[in-house]
Design a protein that fits this description.
TIM Barrel, about 290 residues, 8 strands, single chain, about 15% strand, alpha/beta
């Protein structure tokens, strides 16, 4: 298991790539083989995608990470964690379990909002805001829990936070500054479709922080597919290309190269999400193979 900060520091001229992966709607560990075959540096395990009952992200990440004696060895992983469903006590117990399983990279996110139908069956907890949870995990790394009591041993997590340009680049840059001040070691963005937005985010971050971004940023690139779910504001030209029959992996690789030309050197590749929540990992692998090749 390797921390993102170490992988980034030692990546050489190749971009660092994480790929998004949904845990299964079962406890069957066989799912992990598909994750291990993806040609990425890390597998980023989603947290309850679609607000559905799925394998816990910690358990799924640990399963992918371990070498189960299969054809493909275990991979480095990130597990996503949201404060939506657990209180402070449960979250910190959960993190100690992740530490025991050898996991080191955690990405803190808000989590999808519950619908009115959801709220008729359950409720949000949100004891922490994401920035507060980042700070709390860094305190655990110093050996202190949320009550201010000493842990028997400190944790050692590399903590990530998110940014979503579709919510406004200036406001997201200011929020990213607060997250890095809280202790975030890396950032992961939602889908980016324009290299100019990367430059604007860097400019707004520096204006708010008084210095450039000093931690790795993994820029999100979604592999599009006709009829699939879309994150962010997809340019009309990309929609036209897709509807005209151009393959989604080809569009994604072109965007990845344009982002690399703009100075980006780390990416979060999002496989297509089909109706019903199925993922097209074959399309993601075509994208990764083309980029690597």
């Amino acid at each position: 298991m390797a921390k993102i900060t170490d992988l980034y520091a030692n990546k050489g001229s190749r971009p660092l790539i994480a790929v998004d992966f949904s845990p299964p709607r079962s406890g069957d560990p066989a799912f992990a083989e598909a994750a291990r075959t993806l040609d990425a540096d890390l597998v980023c395990v989603a947290y309850s995608p679609g607000r559905s009952v799925r394998m816990d992200s910690v358990a799924a990440a640990a399963t992918i990470n371990r070498d189960a004696g299969n054809r493909h060895a275990g991979k480095d992983v990130i597990f996503n964690l949201s404060p939506r469903d657990m209180n402070k006590l449960a979250l910190q117990m959960h993190l100690l379990g992740a530490q025991a399983l050898g996991l080191e990279n955690v990405l803190v996110l808000k989590g999808d909002e519950f619908s009115e139908k959801d709220l008729a069956r359950l409720q949000s907890v949100d004891d922490y805001q994401p920035t507060e949870l980042v700070a709390a995990i860094k305190e655990m790394n110093q050996g202190v829990d949320f009550k201010g009591l000493k842990l028997a041993a400190p944790t050692d997590f590399c903590v990530g936070a998110t940014a979503d340009f579709s919510k406004g680049i200036e406001s997201e840059a200011r929020l990213a500054v607060r997250k890095t001040v809280a202790g975030a070691d890396f950032l992961v963005t939602q889908s980016v479709y324009d290299p100019a937005h990367v430059a604007e985010f860097a400019r707004q971050y520096q204006a708010a922080a008084g210095h450039p971004i000093g931690i790795p940023v993994l820029y999100g690139v979604q592999v599009l597919v006709q009829g699939g779910l879309v994150f962010g504001n997809v340019p009309e030209s990309m929609r036209d290309d897709l509807e005209g029959g151009r393959p989604g992996p080809e569009i994604a690789v072109e965007l990845l190269h344009s982002l690399m030309d703009a100075g980006c050197d780390a990416f979060y590749v999002i496989p297509p999400i089909l109706k019903g929540g199925a993922r097209d990992y074959e399309a993601a692998q075509k994208t990764l193979a083309a980029l690597r090749g």
